[in-house]
């Protein structure tokens, strides 16, 4: 009976920690939604709690005829978090490490699923924090500087 109480207590503790982490990520997403302007947020919550040196992959569906913006939202304590975008054949089509801009706008020639890989740098502290991928879309405009896939 005592063992069962410990197991239930551990389960409650883990559930509480996950709820706190989710709330923390949700507030970071809300605080960074302005990075998508003038795009419309796709409504999905793509977030995860990562340790230093951690990597997370998100799959996103992109549809022909729309322009997209990708942006990262993360806790500053994690350092310079970067992302790279891979096409369906696992070819890299964008890497934010090569850019000073925290967002990337693009069009797709055909509907496709992309993989966005988020990388948290290694630091000397044992850190863990929230990282979120923000995805926005809009009808395309004739704007220069978009990098088609």
Features:
single chain, 21% helix, Jelly Rolls, five-stranded antiparallel beta sheet, four-stranded antiparallel beta sheet, alpha+beta, 149 residues
Describe the structure.
With 149 residues, this protein is an alpha+beta fold. It has one helix and nine strands, in the order H-E-E-E-E-E-E-E-E-E. It has a single domain, classed as GOLD domain (Jelly Rolls, Sandwich), CATH 2.60.120.680. It has one helix at 2-32, and strands spanning 40-41, 46-51, 55-62, 67-74, 82-86, 92-95, 103-107, 112-119, 128-138. Helix content is 21%, strand content 38%.
What's the CATH architecture name? Answer: Sandwich
Domain unit count: 1
Number of contiguous helices? 1
Distance between the termini: 60 Å
- State the helicity in percent bands: 10-25%
Compact overview of the structure:
The chain is α+β, with helices and mostly antiparallel strands and 149 residues long. The chain is built from one helix and nine strands, in the order H-E-E-E-E-E-E-E-E-E.
Blueprint of the fold:
Elements: H1 2-32, E1 40-41, E2 46-51, E3 55-62, E4 67-74, E5 82-86, E6 92-95, E7 103-107, E8 112-119, E9 128-138
Antiparallel strand pairs: 1-9, 2-9, 3-8, 4-7, 4-9, 5-6, 5-8
């Amino acid at each position: 009976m005592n063992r069962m109480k410990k197991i239930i207590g551990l389960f409650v503790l883990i559930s509480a920690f996950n709820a706190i982490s989710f709330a923390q990520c949700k507030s970071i997403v809300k605080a960074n939604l302005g990075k998508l302007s003038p795009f419309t947020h796709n409504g999905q919550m793509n977030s995860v709690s990562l340790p230093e040196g951690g990597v997370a992959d998100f799959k996103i569906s992109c549809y022909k005829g729309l322009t997209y913006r990708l942006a990262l939202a993360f806790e500053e304590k994690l350092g310079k978090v970067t992302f790279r975008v891979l096409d369906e054949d696992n070819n890299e089509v964008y890497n934010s490490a090569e850019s000073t801009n925290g967002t990337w706008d693009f069009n797709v020639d055909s509907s496709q699923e992309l993989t966005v890989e988020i990388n948290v740098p290694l630091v000397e502290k044992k850190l863990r924090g929230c990282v979120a991928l923000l995805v926005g879309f809009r009808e395309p405009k004739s704007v220069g500087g978009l990098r088609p896939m």
